[in-house]
Specification:
The protein is mainly alpha-helical. The chain contains six helices and three strands. A three-stranded antiparallel beta sheet has the order 1-2-3. α3 packs parallel to α5 (about 150-170) and α4 packs antiparallel against α5 (about 150-170).
């Protein structure tokens, strides 16, 4: 009997389950396909990640364009105000007013130590500090700016504030107490300048945008 078993041989014993060949199935096929494509199983597809990155880059690009518009409008408003004041001081100050539309609209150079349109001449330093604070607030708000109308409005405010602040810092009688050059004189109204006009136009535009529910970040809310 023992001799027969020796001749026939002992049947092979199956290996342990853990040592057997890998079993194929849907999970293993997905894993192999993911590894072949360079992705880890369960990871987000490259297309979705690229789309998300592209959306973020597009949003950042739009924000930068709106900031560029803000500062472009501010530069134009500031330059027009500065050039007009230089011409007025050189050609019109200490001269007779120039009538543009009879008595209804004249150019008359005056020095204004107060706020816009000649109000509050006793608080020159306070108005100077307010103008500086407005510039800082606009600069900080620009980081979250995604609305073109808001960019234009804030640009007008910034350019006007810089125009009058320049006068208060560099014109007589001294730093922070300088008198602003005004020259646009409608009949029955206070004399003002282009910086005052930019500030008023920017303020009106902001009020209109607020009534429409448009925020500086481009979102629209309904009350």
């Amino acid at each position: 009997m023992a001799e027969a078993e020796r001749i026939i041989g002992t049947p092979d014993i199956p290996e342990a389950a853990g040592d057997g060949p890998e079993q194929s199935g849907p999970d293993s096929e997905e894993t192999a396909a993911a590894e072949q494509d360079g992705q880890r199983p369960g990871s987000e597809p490259d297309g979705a990640a690229e789309a998300e990155a592209g959306a973020e880059a597009g949003s950042a690009g739009k924000g930068k364009r709106k900031i560029a518009v803000l500062f472009a409008v501010a530069v134009v408003a500031y330059a027009l105000d500065l050039i007009s004041k230089m011409i007025v001081v050189a050609k019109l100050e200490h001269h007779e007013p120039i009538e543009l539309v009879g008595e209804w609209l004249r150019l008359s150079a005056i020095r204004n130590a107060g706020a816009a349109f000649g109000f509050g001449e006793a608080f020159t330093i306070i108005f100077t500090c307010i103008a500086a604070a407005v510039i800082v607030v606009i600069a900080r708000l620009a980081r979250k700016l995604y609305s073109l109308p808001w960019a234009i409005a804030l640009g007008l405010l910034l350019g006007g504030a810089l125009g009058n602040l320049t006068d208060r810092l560099f014109r007589s009688p001294g730093v922070f107490e300088g008198a602003v050059v005004d020259f646009i004189a409608p009949k029955g109204f206070a004399v003002f300048n282009l910086a005052d006009s930019a500030i008023v136009c920017g303020g009106i535009l902001i009020v209109l945008l607020s009534f429409r529910g448009l925020d500086p970040d481009g979102t629209v809310h309904k009350d």
